[in-house]
Every structure is written in structure tokens, then in C-alpha cells.
Design brief:
Elements (H helix, E strand, L loop, with lengths): L10 H12 L4 H8 L3 H11 L6 H10 L6 H12 L4 H8 L3 H10 L1 H14 L1 H5 L7
Helix pairs in contact: 2-3, 5-8
Length: 135
């Protein structure tokens, strides 16, 4: 088949492709089994909704949002909580996983509280005029 030829997928070919893919066969082996490129096979799997190429991207994005917390991050979290921001907003602002942020706050409550006390002491005039939420 040439570069510009369109593959006419039969039911038998499609079934063979899906079965091979679901059985865990390697990409190269699937392509060889069907006598075509992996790209052609992948396009068919995407069209069928069997292969979702962006699932891995979403997983990688979520994993990249789970990383170490620094003192500066903790101070910013403490400040944002004091100023009434929600956890989902803070997570988005810091480009963090929401659940990871919730777990971090819960597991480091004392650290966040210390930062809040520090901020209140350092910025008395600023926070004296505002409603402050402490954890």
C-alpha cells in the first residue's frame, strides 16, 4: 500500500486488530500481523475509541503536578487559605494536583499554622483590616 492509499478495513481485519491490541501484543507485532504500519493500526484503534492517545498525556500532567513542597509554597498556601481562597483554586493557581494539595495541608497542618501566625505577625496592619481564615 502506498503512502496516500486509504485502507479499506474489513470486519475481520478490525476484529483481528482489536483482539491483538487487547491481548497486549507489541505495536510492531500488531503491525506485522496485519501487514501494515503501526500508524495505520493506531489510527483505526483511535477511530474505534479503543486507543486513546491523550490518556497518557493526562496521566503525565497529573503526575507532574505532584512534586515536593517548599517553604515558600507552604507560606503561599497559608496566605491563600487566610485570604479565603478555596483548595481547588489554590491547586489550580499553584499548578498542583487537588488531592495531593489536600493531603499535604492535612499532613502539614502545624507547618501551615506556623506560617499563618508568622504572616499575621509580620503584616499586622494589612490583616487587621481583613477577615482572616485560619486552619
Amino acid at each position: 500500500m502506498g503512502l496516500n492509499s486509504k485502507i479499506q478495513w474489513t470486519n475481520e481485519m478490525t476484529e483481528k486488530l482489536v483482539t491483538a491490541y487487547n491481548s497486549g501484543l507489541k505495536q510492531k507485532e500488531i503491525a506485522k500481523l496485519l501487514g501494515m504500519s503501526w500508524g495505520a493500526c493506531k489510527n483505526r484503534l483511535v477511530a474505534l475509541g479503543v486507543f486513546k492517545p491523550y490518556d497518557n498525556v493526562q496521566k503525565m500532567r497529573s503526575l507532574s503536578k505532584i512534586r515536593e513542597y517548599t517553604d515558600t509554597t507552604d507560606m503561599l498556601i497559608a496566605q491563600m487559605i487566610m485570604e479565603g481562597y478555596t483548595i481547588p483554586y489554590i491547586a489550580k493557581f499553584l499548578d498542583r494536583d487537588k488531592q495531593d494539595l489536600e493531603n499535604h495541608i492535612e499532613g502539614n497542618k502545624l507547618t501551615i499554622q506556623i506560617w499563618q501566625r508568622y504572616l499575621l505577625q509580620q503584616h499586622k496592619q494589612f490583616y487587621a483590616k481583613r477577615e482572616v481564615k485560619l486552619i
